[in-house]
Amino acid sequence: MHATRDLTQGSLWKNIFLFSVPLILSNLLQVLFNMSDLAVVGNFAQNGAQALGCVGSTSNLVFLFTGVLMGLGSGVNVLTARYYGAREPDEVEKTVHTAAVVCALAGVLLMAVCLLLSAPVLRLLGTKDVLFDGALLYFRIVSLGLPALAIYNFGCGVFSAVGDTRTPLRFMMLSGIVNLLLNLIFVIAFRWDVEGVATATVLSQYLSAVLVVIKLLRSGEWHALRLRRLRIVPDKAKMMLAIGVPTAMQNAIFQVANLFIQGGVNTFSPTVVEGNSVADQPNGIVFCMLDAFYVACTSFMSQNYGAGKRDRVLKSYRVSLTYACGTALLLSGLLALFGRPFLSLFNRDPAVLDAGMYRLNVMCCCYVFAAVMDCTIAASRGLGKTFVPTVIVVVGSCLFRIAWVYTVFAYFHTMISLYALYLFSWVLTGAAEIVYFRRVWKKLFPATNSSLQTGEYIVK
Predict the structure, then answer these.
(1) Which of 22, 189, 342, 393 could make an S-S bridge to 165, C-beta 3.0–4.6 Å?
(2) Which residues contact 341 (CB under 8 A, 6 or more apart)?
(3) How far apart, in whole angstroms, are the C-alpha atoms of residue 42 and residue 58?
(4) To 10 degrees, the CA torsion angle through 386, 61, 35, 67?
C-alpha cells in the first residue's frame, strides 16, 4: 500500500482528521526537543534554575530562524500539492528537486548568520549577565543543526503534499527518542549543562534529516528524490519562493515581535524570566497541535484547487477551522485545570510556577483567536495568496505588538499589560485575514463561474 493519499476524494471530515493526527504527533515530538532540554537541565543540571533560564531565554531566537525554514517548507508543500492534485508528475519532480537545493542552501546560510550574530543579538535583547554565557553557548550549538532542520522541513512539505503524514511521524518519533536519551546521557553522565542538551538536539535533527533523504531516495513515486536530478529550475524556484518567502518572513517577523516581548519580560526579576520560559512549553504544545490543521487546510485546499474542485476547496477550510478551534478550546480547558502540575515537570520552585501560571492563564483565553487567524492564513496560502496575508500579519500581529510594548506596557509596566497584547493582536489580525480571504474567494470563484480548470494556478 502506498503511503500517499488522494486528498480530492472521500469525506473531508474523516480524511482531514486522519491526515492531521500523524502531523499532531509528529509536531508534538518535535516540540519535545526543546521541552526535554528544559526538563533535563531544570531537574538534573548542576545549576538547574540558571541553566533553565539560559535555554529558555533563547527560545524566541531559535524559533525566529526555524520559522524561516518552516516558511520555505510551506512553499514546497503548496506547490507540490498543486501539481500532485493536477496529476502532473513532471512538474512534481521539478518542484521536489528544486526545493531540495533551495532549502539546503537556506539552512547553511541561516547557520552562518546565527553563528556570526548570536552574541550581539543576545546583548540587544538584554539577556541577563548571569545567563548570557550559557545562552550564547546553547544558541551557537543549536545553530549547527539548521541545515538538517531545513532538509527535514523540506521532506515534511513534500510528504504532506502527497498525503503522507505517517512517514514524518515515524522519523520524528525515532529522533525524539534519541534526543531524550542523549539529553540524559550528556547531562547526568557527562555532567554537561546547556551544551549537553544543545548537542543532543543537533544530533537528533541530523538523524531525522538523513532518514528523510533516504526515504525520498528509495521512493518510486512522483516525488522521489534522485541525486543526479538535483538542480534549480528557475520558474519552480520563483513560484516556490513566491509562496515560501512571505510565509518565512511572516514567521520571522512574528518572532522579531516576540523578541521585543522577551525584552519586556527581561525587565522583571530572574524568577519571572524563568517562569515565562516554563510557560512557553505548554504554549508550544498548543501551537504545534493547531499547526497540523493548518497544514491540512493548505494541503487539502491546494490539491483540490489543482483538481478544480471548488466545493471541496472551501469545505476544506471550514472543516480545518472547526477542528482547529475545537482543539484550541479543549486544550485551553485542560491547561486551566492541570497547568500547574504540568509546569512542575520543568521547575518545582513555587515562585517560578506562580510566574508561569500567570502567563498560562492569560494565554488560555487567547488560543481560539490564534486558531481562527492562522487557519485563515493557511487557507489563503492554499489558494496561492501569501503576500497580502503576510502584510496583514506584519501590521496586526508584529508592528502592533512592538508598538504595544513601547506604549501600553511602557506606561503600566505590569505582566498583564504585557501579556494582553496577544489577545488584542490575534483578534485584530484574524478579523482582517477573514475579510481578505472572502475577497480572494469571490474573485477566484465568482458566482457566475463556480468551476476552475484543472491545473490552473498562478502565484501572485
Answers:
(1) 22
(2) none
(3) 15
(4) 20
* Structural domain span for residue 267: 12-444
Long-range Cβ contact pairs of 4-11 (< 8 A, separation 24 or more): 4/162, 4/163, 4/164, 4/221, 4/223, 5/162, 5/163, 5/164, 6/163, 6/303, 7/81, 7/85, 7/163, 7/299, 7/300, 7/303, 7/304, 8/85, 8/303, 8/304, 8/307, 8/309, 8/312
Residue 71 · residue 250 · CB < 8 Å: yes
In three-state secondary structure terms, 348 is coil
What are 387-401's pLDDT values in tens digits?
899 899 889 888 898
Total domains in the fold of the chain: 1
Please indicate, yes or no, if residue 371 is contained in any of the structural domains.
yes
Q: Is residue 449 part of a domain?
A: no
Q: How far apart are CA 240 and CA 279, in angstroms?
A: 35
> Is a pLDDT exceeding 60 seen at residue 455?
no
Global pTM? 0.74
CB 298 within 8 A of CB 78: yes
Distance CA 135, CA 283 (A): 21
Q: Give the C-alpha separation, 74 to 295, whole Å.
A: 8
Residue at 425 is within a domain? yes
The pLDDT, as a whole number, for residue 49 is 67
Angle between helix 367-382 and helix 270-306 axes, rounded to 10 deg: 30
The answer to whether residue 4 sits within a structural domain is no
- Type of residue numbered 61: L
Number of helical H runs and strand E runs in the chain:
17, 0
CA of 430: how far to CAs of 61, 263, 412, 422, in Å?
25, 25, 26, 12
Counting residues of the chain whose pLDDT is more than 70, the rounded percentage is: 91
Cα dihedral sign, 225-226-230-232: negative
Q: Are 131 and 49 in contact (CB under 8 A)?
A: no
pLDDT tens-digit readout, 66-113 = 878 887 888 888 888 888 887 888 888 999 999 999 999 999 999 999
Angle at 445 between CA 443 and CA 449, to 5 degrees: 120
Written as one letter, the residue type at 296 is A
